[in-house]
Amino acid sequence: MKSETTTPTGEFTLRLSATRRGARLARLLGAQQLRDWGVTGPATEAAELVLAELANNAALHGRVPGRDFEVRMERGEGHVRIELSDARGERRPLPSATPDEGGYGLLLVAALATAWGVKEREVGKTVWATVPLTARTGPAGQNTVPPR
To answer: Which band of pLDDT confidence, cut at 50, 70 and 90, is reported for residue 23?
Structure first.
């Protein structure tokens, strides 16, 4: 772990090695920050899953040897914005139309987030998602945040 920043304004930033261990730490430390902010229940689980998927993608597909990835979370009014920045700008994330052994991660992100996307950086890219702090409901009032 290189650095960690949390402020009363609801921001959290963390730089980690672009490895499986770094992705796991991103999920664990991000989940702890959500609890510190008072985010609980299905909202925490949804944000934690989104963070885990984006961190795994950054470690697996965005890895450049010797370069870290950065996690940034910001708590807003009714949502948490999660951003993962890596050094591989040429490798854009695309949900798989026909997932086989893998490829479900971005479909999960799309299902749990109200919006997600990619923005360019001077070096690399940032993949972001906005996760609501209240469970979204689908047809007939069904909860669309899957149980853990």
So the answer is: very high
